[in-house]
Design goal:
The complex is a heterodimer. Chain A is of the alpha/beta class. Chain A has a single domain (15-248), classed as Alpha-Beta Complex (Spore Coat Polysaccharide Biosynthesis Protein SpsA, Chain A), CATH 3.90.550.10. Chain A is built from 9 helices and 9 strands. In chain A, the strands form 2 sheets. Chain A has a 7-stranded mixed beta sheet, sandwiched between helices. Chain A has a two-stranded parallel ribbon with strand order 6-9. In chain A, helix 2 links the parallel strand 1 (15-22) and strand 2. Chain A starts with a helix and ends with a helix. Chain B has a domain at 3-66. Chain B contains 4 helices and no strands. Chain B has helices spanning 3-22, 29-33, 35-62, 68-87. The longest helix of chain B has 28 residues, at 35-62. The two termini of chain B are 53 Å apart. The chains are: A alpha/beta, B mainly alpha. Chain B: Keywords: Coiled coil, Endoplasmic reticulum, Glycosyltransferase, Membrane, Transferase, Transmembrane, Transmembrane helix. Chain B: The chain crosses the membrane at residues 7-26, 38-62.
Chain lengths: 249, 92
């Protein structure tokens, strides 16, 4: 009985800050916000959305301001920056004004569906995980909109990474995750890489620092609007990061 | 210990065993009868592992979930969101 009371009090003060780094997401931003509202308002969890726009020339910030008027300043927080400065610093910038004790990171391009957020939260609470990672490679997870070549590169890269690094998580390059706030700060601090390999380093440093990792299968619907990128330079970047992490973690 | 060091230690241990067998440091009739096989065993191992890797990767490529339902659901929700936001007065 006493334990149950304490438990519900902890539950009450939990707050989730959703960080949305944006760059030219004018088309997608209102829809992703609408979806977050739809799935989180029903769940009853306390949350806020922090939009970190890196000076998008398409006027993403203007749309964000309209959304803030519509949904209120307690739900939508704007933390714009002058120009593109990298993901790690975007997260730090967002966290500085986050009032939640948990941070959720997701892409604003609609490839990450907010319906999975309540699942992340439930799993985290059940086992008190330090971080929850969405995974495209396990259970009911998957990807829409990838051709054979893209799948082959993805599966091949994943196989090599699992073999060399044994990271304890199946999706290393995905960026749909939930972190305890202090854990995220510590991980950002210990990461040196930039770009999308940053996500991979975060999970590996988490394993190195003995943080517990939970996984939730997610469906990843590749960019509805705009272009998805996977070129030669991304592959070179990935290979370099793999070798770097192989030698240092 | 880093992953690199782990790989180096396991590989050198395996190499030491193999080398002691082909160098004649361990004597046994069975080893002498199968010397040719022992000499090429690292190559055989690499080939078998390569086949395993290709099989696993291709299997996973072909069984990669395409999420058709999730894509349809999202398209429907996008339309719903656009209509709803338009009704709320948002123009973008």
């Amino acid at each position: 009985m006493a334990a149950a009371t304490v438990d519900s009090e902890i539950t009450k003060i939990d707050k989730y800050s959703i960080l949305l780094p944006t760059y030219n997401e004018r088309e997608n931003l209102p829809i992703i916000i609408w979806l977050i509202m739809k799935y989180l308002d029903n769940s009853g969890y306390d949350y806020e959305v922090i939009i970190i726009d890196d000076g998008s020339p398409d006027g993403t910030l203007e749309v964000a301001k309209q959304l803030q008027k519509l949904y209120g300043t307690s739900k939508i927080v704007l933390r714009p920056r002058e120009k593109k400065l990298g993901l790690g610093t975007a997260y730090v910038h967002g966290i500085q004004h986050a009032t939640g004790n948990f941070i959720i990171i997701m892409d604003a391009d609609l490839s990450h569906h907010p319906k999975f957020i309540p699942k992340f939260i439930e799993l985290q609470r059940k086992h008190d995980f330090d971080l929850i990672s969405g995974t495209r490679y396990k259970g009911g997870g998957g990807v829409h909109g990838w051709d054979f070549k893209r799948k082959l590169i993805s599966r091949g890269a994943n196989f090599i990474t699992q073999l060399l690094l044994r990271p304890g998580a199946s999706d290393l390059t995905g960026s749909f995750r939930l972190y305890k706030k202090d854990v995220l700060l510590k991980l950002i601090d210990s990461c040196v890489s930039k770009g999308y390999v940053f996500q991979m380093e975060m999970i590996l440093r988490a394993r190195q620092l003995d943080y517990s990792i939970g996984e939730v299968p997610i469906t990843f619907v590749d960019r509805v609007y705009g272009e998805s990128k996977l070129g030669g330079s991304e592959i070179v970047q990935f290979a370099k990061a793999l070798l770097y992490l192989f030698a240092t973690t | 210990m880093t992953k690199l060091l782990e790989w180096i230690s396991v590989t050198s241990a395996a190499f030491a065993v193999w080398y002691s067998l082909i160098g004649g440091y361990v004597k046994h009739p069975f080893i002498e009868q199968n010397m040719n096989l022992i000499i090429i065993s690292p190559i055989i191992f690499v080939i078998l592992f390569g086949l395993y890797a290709v099989t696993v990767v291709l299997f996973r490529v072909f069984t990669f979930n395409n999420c058709e339902d999730a894509a349809k659901e999202l398209q429907a929700e996008i339309l719903e969101a656009k209509k709803d936001l338009h009704d709320l007065g948002l123009r973008w």
